[in-house]
Amino acid sequence: MTTTTAPAARRTPAASLPGAARLSLVRAGLELRQFWRERDAVIFIFAYPIVMMAIFSTVFGSAEQGTEQGMTVDFARYFLPGMIATGVMLTSFQSLAIAIAVERDDGTLRRLRATPLPASAYFGGKVVLTIATSVVQTAILLAVAALAFDVPLPTDPGRWFTFAWVFLLGTATGTVCGVAFSSLPRSGRSATAVVTPVVLVLQFTSGVFFAFYMLPGWMQTASSLFPLKWIAQGMRSVFLPEEMVVLEPGGSWQHAETAGVLVAWLVVALVVGIRTFRWRRRDDG
User: Fold this and answer.
1) Pick from 3, 36, 51, 54: CA 20 to 30 A from residue 143's CA?
2) Burial 119-148 (b: 16+ CB within 10 A, else e)
3) How far apart are CA 54 and CA 79, in angstroms?
4) For the whole model, what pTM was predicted?
5) Model confidence over 55-71: pLDDT tens digits?
6) 98 burial type by CB count under 10 A (0-12 exposed, 13-18 middle, 19+ buried)
């Protein structure tokens, strides 16, 4: 008696999930759509640097910076770098720290963690959102500065190269710091109250609202510990006349120090973020 065995069932390979890069782009598309639906946030992020520059330039329109040292540059041109720097911090650090805290509080992060979406795709989507909004915001600010306030834009490719690396490194640092800082607020409702004062204080002490060389020495030293001061200084090296370098600490634009401080903050924030990031609320187990 012979026995026959049924043919083995044909195994079909499991459908592979898209790669992390593709999932990041998909997540970024969702993030961008959600961002544009929040009209109040869109208006604030894009309009804030422009409105602040317009207010200061109108109030101090006849004032010139650097007159004590025998050099003059109009107010709008001097403060454009600071407005770019603070715009970078708003779209990266402040926006992400608040948004992630809110998403943790309302359960969005917990639900995402229960899906096959890898954590890298979630953070990748946030990075793409931050870069996109920062680029649009900065482009609008430069256009308004040039057309409405007659601020001359650089023609030297070397200056635009400096602009590119300071902008990208500053955005990356602000993004990672925002992710790390998002674990500090105890709830989504308290996030704005916790994050906004930090940015506001740094704006006053980092050469955004006031000429940096006019600040007290202790304030300059304290602000040098934080990224915003270095982003603003890097941007001043792009948009201000070369002779105004004498107004900077040490009489130098300090590009190497700028890169070093920003990279140090990026690395430290990355380590802290990995160790402290939470997908659930404190009271959610």
Assistant:
1) 36
2) eebbbbbbbbbbbebbeebbeebbebbeee
3) 10
4) 0.88
5) 877 776 555 555 455 56
6) buried
